[in-house]
Amino acid sequence: MRAVKALSAAVLLLGLAATPAAADSSPSAGPSGDGDAPTTAGTSFRTATEIEQGRRATANAAAGDYLYWSFPADAGQRPTVRATVRLPETHAAQTWQVDVYDGLRRRQACQWGAQTRTAAADASSVELACVLRTVRAWSEPWANDPLPGTYYVRLTALDLPTSDLGARVGAEIEVGSRDMGGAAAVDGSLSEPLVPGVAMASGADEDGEDRGAVLSAIEPEDGWSSGWWSDRWVWTGIGGVLAALAGVGGYALTRGSGRPSRVPPGA
């Protein structure tokens, strides 16, 4: 019975350790407030505006422009990109689309969400969404799986009528993610993010020249966490302890009460 009590206590401790890991499966809150959120968008991959997850970015543009933003995504996260386009008072029917690319500029498919929508002529805005696949810590070279690193968002209108080209529009974009926990863990990891991406550096260098495009410095709030640890280890430990408890219980039920008193020794 002492062994059973000790193993039961071990299961309780492992369950308490697993509680924070299970809580990670809820959507991440991200930074609060939009006081220092970007108010412009890039016009290409090289000039994409960096944004943090959980913070809304805005931009004023002309219909027909390509708008680009970039954000970091780490292993185990399932990013969701939401975009809203504010349309002018008078316009024809317009079709808008949001696309997401990884650091290698490979277009990533959306699991679900309204990636493309058509706004009627009397609509004041159009909302788009794209839920990506879970970012993996490691993948085969030939696969198109999302990997840790910088991701790019492109927002644009498709086949605009000539009368609407150049019309002023407003765009809002926000990226959030859900931590999928050990369910998304794989056997392997990247030692560094896939591609850190590029960004436009503000200011000038020592020679007074514009620094232009540089490697992106933005990263997840808690840093790049790709590694061997996941809450899958906790649940594996709990499974091992439960198996040991089942073995002890089975032995206790089948061993009986020992030699009957009526049976002489050596019989």
Automatic annotation (TrEMBL):
Q: Where is the segment annotated Disordered?
A: 22-42
Compositional bias (Low complexity) at which positions?
22-38
Q: Which domain of life is it from?
A: Bacteria
Per the record's keyword annotation, is Signal included, yes or no? yes
- Could you list this entry's UniProt keywords, alphabetically sorted: Signal
- Residue span of the signal peptide, if any? 1-23
Its name, as the record gives it, is Secreted protein
Originating species: Streptomyces rochei (Streptomyces parvullus)
